[in-house]
């Protein structure tokens, strides 16, 4: 296999990891107004991701670094054309990270409420805008002959991009609430179970619309992996329905695992619909960025491949070990026994 094609799928792998892991972080953050009925409940919700949220975000850093090294043309066009939504995402992530660290620094209800609101905003904005960004990557954007984006912010706010954005927002929300149900006890646990069942219905509807529209887009440009787009879309929908069913039956672990697989297959569906492009042009097909014309030199890709062969197993092992260490539930008793600033 050509190394450029291999690295297309390695980048897919890193974005799958990012959306699965930081996806439930976003969902937990967005659930605060619904599950955090008092300070103890809010601390219980936040502490479910307290030890891992920053580790989850490293997947985005690695994905961006790999994108820069393996597909510099794609990276340059993407970050110059999408600079405003990507900047907003960055600011929202900073806002969320600061809130996690500073929320407990003062024993003031107003202080904590302000940072809680920033956690919600810092979770919802990236959840929406990542979907909008990837929707536009799959659909294509106007590019000139030098692969420069010729549109503006409103070009990106098109129906398909917004639909994918709403889908990721709802999908991450359900995924995060399922994680809270898995990791907590008491009233928060019961409220999370109820919320999963309510939120899963609009998520399923939005996801179904995204799957159908993505298949139509892929078929319209005769995507060579159309079969994979259809298969992944169908499997993602099945696992999202399973999330709802398992939650109704009280199987929290299986519900969360179904959310993982739903996001995994949804992201693979988007990349399969994109293949063999990395950024299609809506002005002229000759202006499109493909795996072939956007990749680095074979020597660069060869060095990166050997590095990834050594580093990726270590990263995965460390991630698995971290989640094993923090595998226990965050109980209400432990929160009540801890200092109020913890």
Question: Topology of this structure?
Answer:
Blueprint: H1 3-30, H2 32-35, H3 39-47, H4 53-70, H5 72-81, H6 83-102, H7 109-139, H8 153-156, H9 159-183, H10 186-220, H11 226-248, H12 252-274, E1 277-279, E2 289-290, H13 291-294, H14 298-325, H15 332-337
Antiparallel strand pairs: 1-2
Helix pairs in contact: 1-4, 1-7, 1-9, 1-12, 4-5, 4-14, 6-7, 7-9, 7-12, 9-10, 9-12, 10-11, 10-12, 11-12
Provide the domain count: 1
Query: Approximately how much helix is present in the residues?
Result: over 70%
Number of strands: 2
Overall morphology = globular
Total count of helical runs of at least 4 residues: 15
- How is the biggest beta sheet arranged? 2 strands, antiparallel
Strand content: under 5%
Q: Helices and strands, in N-to-C order?
A: HHHHHHHHHHHHEEHHH
Please state the average pLDDT score.
91
Termini separation comes to 51 Å
Q: What Rg do the Cα atoms give?
A: 20 Å
| Structural class by SSE content | mainly alpha
Strand order of the largest sheet: 1-2
- Spans of at least 5 consecutive residues whose pLDDT stays below 50 are none
Give an account of the 3D structure.
The chain has 342 residues and is an all-alpha fold. It has one domain (3-334). 78% of the residues lie in helices and 1% in strands. It is built from 15 helices and 2 strands. The protein has helices at 3-30, 32-35, 39-47, 53-70, 72-81, 83-102, 109-139, 153-156, 159-183, 186-220, 226-248, 252-274, 291-294, 298-325, 332-337; strands at 277-279, 289-290. It has a two-stranded antiparallel sheet with strand order 1-2. Helix 9 runs antiparallel to helix 10 (186-220). The radius of gyration is 20 Å and the shape is globular. The chain starts with a helix and ends in a 5-residue tail after the last helix. The mean pLDDT is 91.
